[in-house]
């Protein structure tokens, strides 16, 4: 067997082991933290509902953007918490005429990206990737699958 084939086999095995380690590590982390994650989700939902009871739909978006500002650069758990908040908030907030006008379905990739960029720009958050991710919740609300 040539050296090149041995190296290729070694790299494939290394990748398989690394992936297995990541999956196992992720499972262990989730098992150790599932109660905290559940509590975080329930708290975010309750806060979203409470805030939404006294707000119009744009207020939910503004509050979600304020909250996401407190998330770190790459903090997916914090952004998930904000996503749960805004989804709960929008469900109970006072409907605002025209709120969903022009909101594309998430499955329409180009329209979705264009809308998110423009909406974040209009919110004074141009270039803010977290803004675009949070707006996905607005799309889910306005254009449920």
Short descriptors:
elongated, mainly alpha, 145 residues
Brief characterization of the structure:
The protein has 145 residues and is mainly α. It has helices at 3-53, 57-68, 76-92, 109-122, 129-142. The protein is 74% helix and 0% strand.
Describe this structure in words.
It is a single chain. By secondary structure, the chain is mainly α. It has one domain (37-142). Helices cover 74% and strands 0% of the residues. The protein has helices at 3-53, 57-68, 76-92, 109-122, 129-142. The N and C termini lie far apart (53 Å).
Written as H for each helix and E for each strand, in order along the chain, the element string is HHHHH
Averaging pLDDT over every residue, what do you get? 88
Distance between the termini: 53 Å
Task: Provide the domain count.
Answer: 1
Strand percentage lies at under 5%
Shape annotation: elongated
Main sheet, how many strands, which sense, barrel? none
Low-confidence stretches: none
SSE topology sketch:
Elements: H1 3-53, H2 57-68, H3 76-92, H4 109-122, H5 129-142
Helix pairs in contact: 1-3, 2-3, 2-5, 3-5, 4-5
């Amino acid at each position: 067997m040539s050296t090149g084939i041995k190296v290729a086999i070694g790299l494939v095995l290394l990748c398989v082991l690394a992936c297995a380690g990541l999956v196992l590590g992720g499972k262990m982390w989730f098992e150790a933290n599932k109660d905290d994650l559940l509590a975080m989700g329930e708290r975010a939902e309750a806060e979203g509902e409470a805030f939404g009871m006294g707000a119009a739909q744009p207020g939910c978006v503004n509050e979600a953007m304020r909250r996401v500002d407190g998330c770190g650069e790459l903090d997916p758990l914090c952004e998930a918490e904000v996503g749960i908040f805004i989804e709960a908030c929008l469900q109970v907030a006072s409907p605002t005429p025209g709120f969903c006008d022009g909101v594309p379905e998430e499955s329409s990739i180009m329209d979705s990206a264009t809308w998110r960029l423009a909406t974040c720009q209009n919110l004074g958050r141009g270039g803010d990737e977290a803004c675009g991710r949070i707006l996905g919740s607005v799309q889910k609300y306005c254009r449920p699958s």
